[in-house]
Please model this.
Amino acid sequence: MIAKVVVENAAYSFDIAFSYQVPPAMQEDIRPGCRVLIPFGKSNRARQGLVMSLEEGEESKLKPIRMLLDLKPLLNEEQLWLTEYLHKRVFCTYYEAMRAVIPSGLTMKVKVMCSLGEQQAIPPEPSAAQQKILEYLKEQKKPVYIGQLLMDLGLTKNAPALKELFRIGAVVFSENVREKTSDSKIVMVRLSDGYADLLQSGKIRMTQVRKKVISLLEESPSASLKEVCYYAGTTRQTLDKMEEAGIISYYGRQIFRSPYADRHQEEQTDSGVTLEPSQQMALDTLWHLWEKKEEGSYPTALLYGVTGSGKSQVYLKLIEQVREKGEGVIILVPEISLTPQTVELFGRRFGKKVAVLHSGLTMAERADEYKRIQQGLADVVVGTRSAVFAPLKKLGLIVIDEEQEGAYASQSAPRYHAREIAKVRCRYHKAMLLLASATPSIETFYQAQKGKIHLVTLSKRYLGNQLPKVQIVDMNQSYGFDISQELTAELADNLQSNQQSIILLNRRGYHTAVKCNSCGEVIKCPNCSVALTYHHANRRMMCHYCGYSRDLEERCPNCGSELMGFNGSGTQRIEDELGRIFPQAQILRMDVDTTMSKLAHEVKFQEFAEGKYQIMVGTQMVAKGLNFPNVTLVGVLNADQSIYSQDFRGCERAFSLLTQVVGRCGRGTLPGRALIQTTSPDHPVIRQAAMQDYDGFYKDEIKTRKLALYPPFCTLCQVGFSGENEEYVRHGAMWFAREFQKKASGEYKDLPIRMMNPCEPVIARVAGKYRYCIVIKCRMEERFSRLMWEMLRAFDSEKKHKEVHIWVDLNGNDL
Model:
């Protein structure tokens, strides 16, 4: 038997399936999807691998697999297919794809251990360096991690003394393999099978406490150790003696760790929500589409409705009906900040059948939620981007809320988009995909207009509530103030009326730059091409890209002047300014700095909902999907920020953010109003967002996209290069562009491709690494994928590129 195995930490040049001999002892247990330990390369160094397939064939010259790491496959058939799909489609390695499909807590950690070999192999007259190693291992008395040995003795990885001792057998290496997280278990107690015969024999002395324990376990066949001790009024010592005597036995039961476990209620039979006629019509349309999947189709629909139109109520009812048919559902939200409200909404309706997956959970909690889904203990999965891989066996529906959000595109390998993965999973399961948004992405709305996906519209707010009245405030005459007189007056009115307000500024920190007023020098990060942001809370200047920080500069490092000034405002400064204007108000700040602790989003949003704060200041995390009935005022500061970015999606992002945040007010019985502060009051995007005119914005934007040939009229493929040596990175990008042009104009000349010249991005250096990129406009198909893989392997095979990292992003989401 031959196993086709892909290896961990593979480069593009050798990221292929290698053939290995399956030892006879393993042939009964090994399956595709199992992890194995294999000898790899000329040195036969132990590497972890994943079995992609098994086949019969000639195996005499093949290396045998050393160890089977999984007794049952870690990846099922669909997950192996997804791994292959990600590898081929988004140009990542197999192991990068596997790590996206399963939570990191389930991956294996392989440590190479070092210990003394046979006594007779130790040289009679070792060198000083060899003697040092031998004495160290003798003192340890057990295998020691090779990294620890090298660090303690100050040796390099290829130290000649260590290599020679290994060659002659005086030192041996072994592998220690373990999962990154282990199951959490509770000690359970039950009566042993032969306990009755044991008691009748009269050999066991029976005390009152022992009789109480037996009586308790006869009533309840099993109970936790803690429960037995509590109800029998005894200690663990008593139970240990009973276990030694053979009366009772211990066993472990897995408990699933989840921060939401104690909040799940019992499943309700009625959600208590009554749909309006327009919502009911939307639901009927969606249900009719869902039923069509039984005919072999896998429909995709866009639920498009103004903010506050009750889209979540519609898809909640749809989920109920899908579950009644015995099929599972995945609901994706773009931000962790939206998860608490969504979990609460679904937890009230579906109880303990809800599982949660997002990066705010610990590694162990994510692994346990994954296992609950895998074992069928949960059939409704709520989460952020990675939840799209949830291992539901019978998937009937995937819902992507706020589908336009860039957070659904992964910015690290594998660079997938959750929407694309949802599509292929729905195709695999013959399930339905539902996209929901008040401001759909241009690509999605274009497909809906062309009839490629079904469009379902909700044009009015729930219960007839009116859309907020929006005022555009011209800040050209603001004389340096961040908060206009108009917004100040509206905030004062809200405080007097005991109503809540939200202020959006999509910049964290106190000041966005520190600048010398004498020479104009801006204090920059030494590792990145960006200015340092001043944080008043810790009186430090910080980089928001690499995390570098330093004390506030008193003098200019360039000219020595003490005339240091501050530019730009962040959420910390606005919080302080509001505190000075309204000293009686309780102000909540929501940004990355205040939500670092676990479940911070949930706690703070809950406190705001309970009325402990009157004003909430925050970045874009306060702009989407949240529902606070007492919020009647929204203020937007620096609304021009996204419009003038160099990204072709700048206007789309600005329109979406403004529309979404304006929609946070007036969602209860009270009318809402919003003020947008801008220095471009006549900009069409500002005007359209103020009127909530998505259709008008779409018509203007689609013309620009067509003229400039941007999505949806092409696929944007970005090839990135990074490294510590700027010259190597630049030469690598130039080499790739030159060779790509040769291949594309030769055997692939029939493919529609436009390649732009290599260039530096706006931020040319991040975390000490220089960056270059090439943008390719193409049509994603099988042959383009083949062309790109040929180029990646060719680039990686060149020795001169070994210090340059290359990556590919088909989302075009960070241009």
Observations:
- Residues 185-254 form a domain with the Arc Repressor Mutant, subunit A fold (CATH 1.10.10).
- Residues 474 and 678 are 6 Å apart (CA to CA).
- The longest strand covers residues 45-55.
